[in-house]
Amino acid sequence: MKDESESSEYVAIYEDKDGDWMLVGDIPWLMFIETCKRLRIKKRSDGTGSGLRANDTTNKERGLSMH
């Protein structure tokens, strides 16, 4: 069965306190609300250049390019 998040044309990302862009849902909710500075919804095809951290293996599993 295909993961619903993979079939979406859009992906939600957020900027943390350190200025790094991460995928929403990668960390527990309480940690997220303490560290999130801003949210963005981007087209999955615009994943390149999004600034997502390269050491986040979840991003690789979801098919996002990280630069």
Automatic annotation (TrEMBL):
<dbReference type="Pfam" id="PF02309">
    <property type="entry name" value="AUX_IAA"/>
</dbReference>
<keyword id="KW-0804">Transcription</keyword>
<keyword id="KW-0805">Transcription regulation</keyword>
<dbReference type="InterPro" id="IPR003311">
    <property type="entry name" value="AUX_IAA"/>
</dbReference>
<comment type="function">
    <text>Aux/IAA proteins are short-lived transcriptional factors that function as repressors of early auxin response genes at low auxin concentrations.</text>
</comment>
<feature type="compositionally biased region" description="Basic and acidic residues">
    <location>
        <begin position="58"/>
        <end position="67"/>
    </location>
</feature>
<dbReference type="GO" id="GO:0005634">
    <property type="term" value="C:nucleus"/>
</dbReference>
<protein>
    <recommendedName>
        <fullName>Auxin-responsive protein</fullName>
    </recommendedName>
</protein>
<dbReference type="GO" id="GO:0006355">
    <property type="term" value="P:regulation of DNA-templated transcription"/>
</dbReference>
<feature type="region of interest" description="Disordered">
    <location>
        <begin position="45"/>
        <end position="67"/>
    </location>
</feature>
<dbReference type="GO" id="GO:0009734">
    <property type="term" value="P:auxin-activated signaling pathway"/>
</dbReference>
<keyword id="KW-0927">Auxin signaling pathway</keyword>
<comment type="similarity">
    <text>Belongs to the Aux/IAA family.</text>
</comment>
<keyword id="KW-0539">Nucleus</keyword>
<dbReference type="InterPro" id="IPR033389">
    <property type="entry name" value="AUX/IAA_dom"/>
</dbReference>
<keyword id="KW-0678">Repressor</keyword>
<comment type="subunit">
    <text>Homodimers and heterodimers.</text>
</comment>
<feature type="domain" description="PB1">
    <location>
        <begin position="1"/>
        <end position="44"/>
    </location>
</feature>
<dbReference type="InterPro" id="IPR053793">
    <property type="entry name" value="PB1-like"/>
</dbReference>
